[in-house]
TrEMBL record:
The lineage of its organism: Eukaryota, Viridiplantae, Streptophyta, Embryophyta, Tracheophyta. It comes from Daucus carota subsp. sativus (Carrot). Belongs to the PP2C family. This is protein-serine/threonine phosphatase. Gene3D superfamilies: PPM-type phosphatase domain (3.60.40.10). It is an enzyme of class 3 (hydrolase). It comes from the Eukaryota. GO terms for cellular component: membrane.
C-alpha cells in the first residue's frame, strides 16, 4: 500500500523499531512510564486535581519535543500555593532549547511565585522572559565553539492550575484544547484555549507588520507557506537567537540562517499570550499537545477520542489516532508506518507530545494540602530529588 515514491525513500531504512531505538531506549518502571520503540507513555497518574495521561512519539533523529508535569508546590517557600503545572516544549533546529526550558522554566515559575507571594499572569510572563534571557546567555557563552546553537529554538506551551484558576501561556504553535460538557445537548465540546503564533494565520502576519512597519519582507510566502523573513513559521519562541539579537546573525552561523538586512530589534518575540479563567464543573479535561498532533486531528476529533475512551492510556490513544491518519495520507498501513525508523519517520509525521489532564471539580474547589511533589517528564526523564511519582 506504500506508493512508489515513498517506497524508494523508506525501504532502505525499513526495519522494526525495537526497545533499543531512539531516545526512549531505556526500560523504565511504571512510575516513570514505559517505552515501546519510538513511543514513550505513562498511561495513568494522579495530580492534585485529578488524573492524567502522557505520551510522546519520536520522529526526528534526536527527539526535539520535551514536556513535563509537576504537581504540588508552585513556590520555593513551604507556605506557597499548591497546583499543577504542565509544559509542552516543541523544539526546532535541534533539541537544546526545549531541553533547556524543561530544566529551567518551572524553577523560574517557583522563584517568581515566591517573590510575588502568589501565582499570577505576570509571574508566568516573567518566568518565560527569564528563561529566554538565560538561554540567550548560554548561546553567547557557546557562540565561539557551537555557533549553530543560535539557530535552535522552541515553542513553549504552559498550563497551570492554582487556586481554582487556569492559566494558559503560549509562545509558538502548540495547542491546548478544553473538553467542556454542554449540558443542553449532553455533549462534550472542544474549546481551544491557546492563541497560536504561526505566520499561516493572517492575524499573526498583521501583528508582524504592525511591529515591523518598515520591513516589507517581514513575512514572505515561500513554496506556498508563509514564513517570518522567509525562514521560520512561528513568530514567538524561546531561543532562535539569530532572529532576536543581531550579534548572532553573522558568520560562523550558516548562511541559510542569516537575515540580509540588519535589524535593531528582535524579529521574533518570547512573550507568551496568556489567558486566565476560572474552572467550572463542566470543564472535563485539557489536551495539551505539540503541533504534530493537530496536523492530523481536529480539536473536536481529539476531544471525542478522549471522551469516549478510558482515561487510562488516553494520551497514547490520541497519538495512535494521529499516526493512523498520517499513514492514511501516505496510503500506508499503520503497521507499516510503525516499522520506519527515526529520522525517516519525519517524512510522515513530526515528534508528537500529548498530555491529557483530567479535572475533578471537587478537588479544584478545595485547597490542596501540602503533599509529596509529583514530577514526570515526557520520555521518562527522572527528575532529581523526586521519590514519590505516582
Amino acid at each position: 500500500m506504500v506508493t512508489t515514491t515513498w517506497r524508494k525513500i523508506v525501504y532502505p531504512c525499513w526495519r522494526p523499531s525495537t526497545e533499543g531505538d531512539g531516545l526512549f531506549s531505556n526500560s523504565f518502571a511504571d512510575d516513570y512510564g514505559r517505552s515501546e520503540g519510538l513511543l514513550w507513555y505513562k498511561d495513568y497518574g494522579r495530580h492534585v486535581y485529578g488524573d492524567f495521561s502522557m505520551a510522546v512519539v519520536q520522529a526526528n533523529n534526536i527527539v526535539e519535543d520535551q514536556s513535563q508535569l509537576v504537581s504540588g508546590s508552585m513556590s520555593s517557600v513551604d507556605c506557597g500555593p499548591q497546583g499543577t503545572f504542565v509544559g509542552v516544549y516543541d523544539g526546532h533546529g535541534g533539541p537544546e532549547a526545549a531541553r533547556f526550558i524543561n530544566n529551567h522554566l518551572f524553577d523560574n515559575i517557583k522563584k517568581f511565585t515566591s517573590q510575588n507571594e502568589g501565582m499570577s499572569a505576570d509571574v508566568i510572563n516573567r518566568a518565560f522572559l527569564a528563561t529566554e534571557e538565560e538561554f540567550l546567555s548560554l548561546v553567547r557563552q557557546q557562540w565561539a565553539i557551537q555557533p549553530q546553537i543560535a539557530s535552535v529554538g522552541s515553542c513553549c506551551l504552559v498550563g497551570l492550575i492554582c487556586d481554582g484558576l487556569l492559566y494558559i501561556a503560549n509562545a509558538g504553535d502548540s495547542r491546548v484544547v478544553l473538553g467542556k460538557l454542554d449540558n443542553t445537548f449532553n455533549e462534550v465540546k472542544a474549546v481551544q484555549l491557546s492563541a497560536e503564533h504561526n505566520a499561516s494565520y493572517e492575524s499573526v502576519r498583521d501583528e508582524l507588520h504592525s511591529l515591523h512597519p518598515d520591513d516589507s519582507q517581514i513575512v514572505v510566502l515561500k513554496h506556498m507557506v508563509w514564513r517570518v523573513k522567509g525562514i521560520i513559521q512561528v513568530s514567538r519562541s524561546i531561543g532562535d537567537a539569530y532572529l532576536k539579537r543581531s550579534e548572532f546573525n553573522r558568520a560562523p552561523l550558516l548562511q541559510k540562517f542569516r537575515v540580509r538586512e540588519p535589524f535593531h530589534k528582535p524579529i521574533l518575540k518570547a512573550e507568551p499570550s496568556i489567558v486566565v479563567q476560572k474552572l467550572y464543573p463542566e470543564d472535563q479535561f485539557l489536551i495539551f499537545a505539540s503541533d504534530g498532533l493537530w496536523e492530523h486531528l481536529s480539536n473536536q476529533e481529539a476531544v471525542d477520542i478522549v471522551n469516549n475512551s478510558p482515561r487510562n492510556g488516553s494520551a497514547r490513544k490520541l497519538i495512535k489516532a494521529a499516526l493512523r491518519e498520517a499513514a492514511k495520507k501516505r496510503e500506508m498501513r499503520y503497521s507499516d508506518l510503525k516499522q520506519i525508523e527515526r529520522g525517516v519517520r519525519r517524512h510522515f509525521h513530526d515528534d508528537i507530545t500529548v498530555i491529557v489532564l483530567f479535572l475533578d471539580s471537587n478537588l479544584i474547589s478545595q485547597s490542596p494540602c501540602n503533599g509529596p511533589m509529583l514530577s514526570v517528564r515526557g520520555g521518562g526523564g527522572i527528575p532529581n530529588g523526586v521519590n514519590n511519582l505516582i
